[in-house]
Amino acid sequence: MVEMSTVLKAQTRTNEQHSQLNELRKQGNVPAIVYGYNVENTPISVESKSFLKVMREVGRNGVISLDLEGKKLNVILHEYQEDSLRREVTHADFLAVDMMVEIDANVLIELSNDAPGVKSGGVLQHILHELSITAKPDDIPEEIKVDISGLEIGDSITVGDIRGNYSVVINHEDEESIASVQPPREEEEATEEASESTEDQADEK
Q1: Residues in the chain with pLDDT values less than 70
Q2: CB proximity list for 149: less than 8 A, separation 6 or greater
Q3: pLDDT tens-digit readout, 89-138
Q4: N or C terminus: which one in the chain shows less Cβ crowding within 10 Å?
Q5: What pLDDT is stored for residue 59 in this prediction?
Q6: Residue 185: its pLDDT value, please?
Q7: What is the pLDDT of residue 2?
Q8: Which burial class, exposed, middle or buried, applies to 117 when counting CB atoms under 10 A from its CB (0-12, 13-18, 19+)?
């Protein structure tokens, strides 16, 4: 159930002119659009401070109760655009969802704990940074933590290794690597040099 603290008020808008969108932003609002379940594509605007407050509360994949002039919609933030210099959200897309129907979402991967192989001089490689999953809106996690405390030098952890830890459907092949610990660079270079030397000797013969 969506808590009252996650309600975000929105207003419809009809003017799509660039000057009007900039004026909305100057007034402290974010131009947006809502579409999906039980709603037509509707241009809206939300108050910027309220938007940021709600996003801090529910997280990137959390469900928001959007109050569109009295009509309540369960939505998630599907996409957003940001001014990288001002660090301000300039546009947002909200996807209205049916809480009983599964949807696809991308969830960030966070590596947790320390890998023993790194302490031994290995180099940690974080290969897969997010997972595509399928789940009901309320079941979408904010992030997926992957424990790397068992990785020694030469080890890796794959999607197949974590699939059974979560009730959501993970839309990746089991063989896809999430993280690995590679040998120290000096060892790699020494191995490459030894290999080249062996090849040179074989060529001379």
Answers
A1: 1-5, 15, 186-205
A2: 112, 113, 114, 115, 116
A3: 899 999 999 999 999 999 999 999 999 999 999 999 999 999 999 999 99
A4: C
A5: 86
A6: 75
A7: 41
A8: buried
Give me 174's structure tokens. 């089991």
Average pLDDT of the residues of the chain: 88
Tokens of 15: 């003017």
Q: If you search the block for the tokens 């998630």, which residue do you land on?
A: 76
CA distances from 173 to 104, 133, 150, 178 (A): 16, 12, 21, 11
Say what the pTM is: 0.76
Do both 148 and 120 map to the same domain?
yes
User: Torsion over CA of 56, 61, 64 and 68, rounded to 10 degrees?
Assistant: 110
Q: Of the candidates 128, 116, 181, 186, which has an alpha carbon nearest to the alpha carbon of residue 158?
A: 128
User: Both 94 and 110 in a single domain?
Assistant: no
Q: What is the pLDDT of residue 203?
A: 57
Question: What's the residue count for the chain?
Answer: 205
The CATH number of whichever domain residue 175 belongs to comes to 2.170.120.20
79 in the same domain as 131: no
One domain for residues 10 and 65: yes
83 and 146 share a domain? no
Q: Which residue has the tokens 């809206």?
A: 44
* 8 Å CB contact between 1 and 74: no
**CA–CA separation, 45 and 90 (whole Å):** 11
Domain extent, residue 81, equals 4-98
CATH number at residue 90: 2.40.240.10
